[in-house]
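Please decode residue identities from the backbone states below.
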């Protein structure tokens, strides 16, 4: 990862306990935690260009978080990476996710923060 890319992502989803307010509300956030790898760094840099996406780098992990929906297009990520990216490679690099994950086809993986939006993909 370039130093410029790492320095440009000072935002962080984690808060100190003193800054957390507990509420009885539903979160519409979604995201993935990826093992730090060449592919994960390319995915994070690419997704970090999208509005509303927060990238958090940790020593061995990269988190990609969004509000509402995250759409991962393998062809666009592969173009950014400089080689083919498959949904299988994406899934191998993903150690965990939150939200509802739908693999629409071989090119598209979508994470939904709102369960109602996900229902249109259930047959």
């Amino acid at each position: 990862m370039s130093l410029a890319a790492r320095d440009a992502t000072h935002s962080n989803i984690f808060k100190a306990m003193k800054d957390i307010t507990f509420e009885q509300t539903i979160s519409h956030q979604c995201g993935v935690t990826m093992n730090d790898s060449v592919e994960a760094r390319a995915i994070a840099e690419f997704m970090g260009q999208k509005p509303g996406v927060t990238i958090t780098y940790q020593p061995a992990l990269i988190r990609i978080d969004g509000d509402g929906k995250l759409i991962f297009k393998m062809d666009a990520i592969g173009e950014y990476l400089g080689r083919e990216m498959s949904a299988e490679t994406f899934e191998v690099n993903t150690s965990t996710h939150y939200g509802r994950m739908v693999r629409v086809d071989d090119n598209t993986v979508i994470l939904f923060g709102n369960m109602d939006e996900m229902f249109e993909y259930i047959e």
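Observation: The CA atoms of residues 69 and 111 lie 6 Å apart.
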